């Protein structure tokens, strides 16, 4: 029996388990950019319209940060740029998929049961990677055919599809490595997401200053930056594809080697045994939750600080960037008024910060479900700790941790711009308020995740779907000309655009009421339903 014996059977098992989820995200991510083509043609029917829009987005720091550079002034270039956040999404999905079918299975003890059959040591990892890499390449194939069917150049369509697929392949391989390093699926997910976040921040820092800025070389240090360097629908540089292919091969080799050198259920990184008796300060559910949540929270806070510094550092150049661009100036004037161009910029980027904070809140909320399915919640709840107290011990990190993350990001952005502008006292409170006002929307996403955990625990991963829906509407709803009722589904639509606009309390009050309703429903369900018992 070889290390890969049984890989085919494991592939069929993964395809069976993901028979609904896999086709959904493959079709969604491959068809959405194709829909952008028709929407963009309708919005910008003439070459002059397209040129004006491309000039605007090509110098808009918010667009550059979120989507990357634009490589031509036609429909194809606009669509490719507006799809620039999809590599982050597909990278996240692929990383979570690999960890779900590797480390999560080991943590739950199911990998050990399968290992008692005719199954090689590397079969589970190989099957998870084969399915995920295959799904990414399927996205590329469908996307290439779809874009080419819209009368866009075939070579550019192929480069565009490969740009998305290789992002998925890289972060699937990253997750293959992190799944070998730790005993915990949550820690493995945190490591993989941290790598993805760092890659995005590096790509953002390289692109936010526009073409030829002093930091543009940073994009060569990020797998997400390689995608923009490929130049889909521009002067495609096919040799760039060698970089992600080599990285994927190296990471897969490392993951396979690490998998062969560790015990099933163990990780490469040693787990230190604790003392026989816990200290007085570690004998309650909240102290246990602190031990579980503190390290991921520190990593997220570091990411928010880095994002804040980048956002604040670019703000000073916004006015210079739009001085010779009347279209862009009109957009910012409409958003923030004639005296609020920098305010409008901060209102936009703080909305992005809110989406990232919602990602942390969902991750911290779903830790409840992972503790339950790994059977670690049951012994805690067998003591005098009630279910609501146990749930609150986790939710306090989802709620307060996200607010702290927003405060860190807003403070870093305000301090950086304030120091550059010589007016820390005037800038910092305004930017910090713009960051903190996002928290009702962030909490509503977390409350929806609580509702799934309490009422439909098998669908608890749909908390990520709620975040994806909100992010999709926020980033793409305007371009797809979505109806206002659909845009209103995203809680971030209702957040006041600070600084530059008045703080209206009514929408925040409605968001707060929705948070209470969804959270109460979820906790009531958690209190009444049976726990997972393996």
Automatic annotation (TrEMBL):
Q: List where the protein spans the membrane.
A: 20-39, 84-102, 123-148, 154-179, 191-218, 238-258, 297-318, 344-366, 395-419, 431-455, 462-482, 508-526
Entry keyword set: Membrane, Transmembrane, Transmembrane helix
Q: Which domain of life is it from?
A: Bacteria
Q: What is this protein called?
A: ABC-2 type transport system permease protein
Give the organism, scientific name: Actinomadura viridis
């Amino acid at each position: 029996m070889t290390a890969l014996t049984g890989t085919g059977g494991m592939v069929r098992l993964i395809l069976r388990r993901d028979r609904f989820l896999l086709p959904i995200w493959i079709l969604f991510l491959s068809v959405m950019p194709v829909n952008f083509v028709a929407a963009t043609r309708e919005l910008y029917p003439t070459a002059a319209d397209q040129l004006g829009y491309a000039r605007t987005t090509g110098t808009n720091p918010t667009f550059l940060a979120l989507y990357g550079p634009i490589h031509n002034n036609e429909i194809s270039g606009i669509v490719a740029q507006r799809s620039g956040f999809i590599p982050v999404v597909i990278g996240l999905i692929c990383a979570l998929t690999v960890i779900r079918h590797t480390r999560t299975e080991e943590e739950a003890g199911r990998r050990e049961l399968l290992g008692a059959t005719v199954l090689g040591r590397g079969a589970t990892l190989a099957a998870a990677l084969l399915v995920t890499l295959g799904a990414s390449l399927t996205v590329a194939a469908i996307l290439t055919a779809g874009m080419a069917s819209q009368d866009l150049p075939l070579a550019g369509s192929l480069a565009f599809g490969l740009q998305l697929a290789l992002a998925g392949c890289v972060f699937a391989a990253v997750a293959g490595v992190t799944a070998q390093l730790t005993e915990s699926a949550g820690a493995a997910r945190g490591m993989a997401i941290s790598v993805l976040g760092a890659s995005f921040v590096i790509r953002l820092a390289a692109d936010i200053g526009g073409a030829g800025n002093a930091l543009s070389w940073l994009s060569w240090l990020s797998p997400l930056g390689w995608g923009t360097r490929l130049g889909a629908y521009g002067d495609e540089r096919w040799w760039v594809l060698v970089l992600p292919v080599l990285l994927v091969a190296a990471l897969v080799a490392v993951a396979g080697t690490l998998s062969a050198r560790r015990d099933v259920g163990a990780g490469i990184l040693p787990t230190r045994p604790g003392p026989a008796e816990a200290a007085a300060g570690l004998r309650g559910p909240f102290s246990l939750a602190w031990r579980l949540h503190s390290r991921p929270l520190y990593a997220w806070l570091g990411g928010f600080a880095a994002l804040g510094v980048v956002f604040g550092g670019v703000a000073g150049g916004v006015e210079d960037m739009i001085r010779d661009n009347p279209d862009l100036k009109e957009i910012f004037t409409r958003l923030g008024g004639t005296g609020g161009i920098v305010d409008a910029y901060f209102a936009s980027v703080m909305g992005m910060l809110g989406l990232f904070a919602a990602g942390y809140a969902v991750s911290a909320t779903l830790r409840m479900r992972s503790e339950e399915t790994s059977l670690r919640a049951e012994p805690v709840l067998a003591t005098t700790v009630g279910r609501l107290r146990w749930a609150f011990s986790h939710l306090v990190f989802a709620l307060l941790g996200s607010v702290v993350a927003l405060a860190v990001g807003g403070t870093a952005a305000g301090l950086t711009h304030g120091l550059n502008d010589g007016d820390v006292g005037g800038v910092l409170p305004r930017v910090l308020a713009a960051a903190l006002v996002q928290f009702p929307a962030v909490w509503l996403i977390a409350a929806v995740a609580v509702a799934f955990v309490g009422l439909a625990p098998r669908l608890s991963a749909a908390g990520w779907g709620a975040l994806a829906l909100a992010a999709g509407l926020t980033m793409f709803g305007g371009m797809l000309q979505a109806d206002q009722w659909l845009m209103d589904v995203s809680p971030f639509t209702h957040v006041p655009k600070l600084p530059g606009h008045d703080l209206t309390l009514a929408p925040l009050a409605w968001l707060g009421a929705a948070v209470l309703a969804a959270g109460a429903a979820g906790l009531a369900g958690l209190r009444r339903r049976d726990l997972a018992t393996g």
